[in-house]
Amino acid sequence: MQRLAISRGDWSAAAAAGSAQALAASAGFAASGLPGWVLPTGNGSAAAGAQNQYLSIWNQVGSSSAGLSSQFDGVQFSPYRSGTEYALDPGSAWFFIGFQSFGDKAQTLYAVAVLPGDVALIPEPQTLALALLALGATMVVRRRRPV
Q1: Over the stretch 67-107, which tens digit does the pLDDT of each residue have?
Q2: Beta strands in 37-89 (DSSP E)
Q3: Residues 6+ apart with CB under 8 A from 75
């Protein structure tokens, strides 16, 4: 699993120097030699999945700080910055501390770096239903086809 807890920074859509996004990218690269490290998404009004990777991570580690410590280096019981802006207030972004909330982008919070695709995502119900429908249709077509 390629994840690590890193230093503290503010929120910046452009990954300005010293921001949580910039710290995630540089610390991840320094630790692994791989580019592309980012902050997890964290929309507290969304279910675990692509829009809420923090909830996916929390669920994967057994919803406990001890579980987080086993997967991330240097975990602090302190708020962690999300890569997701709070849609109803452009001056705020989501953060995570065992639960999700939003706060001022200028706050200096901890950051966790993840590689995209590293967080197991739970498919949305409609995506799963569509996949099952396609699988079922494929099976029906194969049975009806003469040999």
Answers
A1: 888 877 778 888 999 999 999 999 999 999 889 999 999 99
A2: 80-85
A3: 5, 65, 68, 69
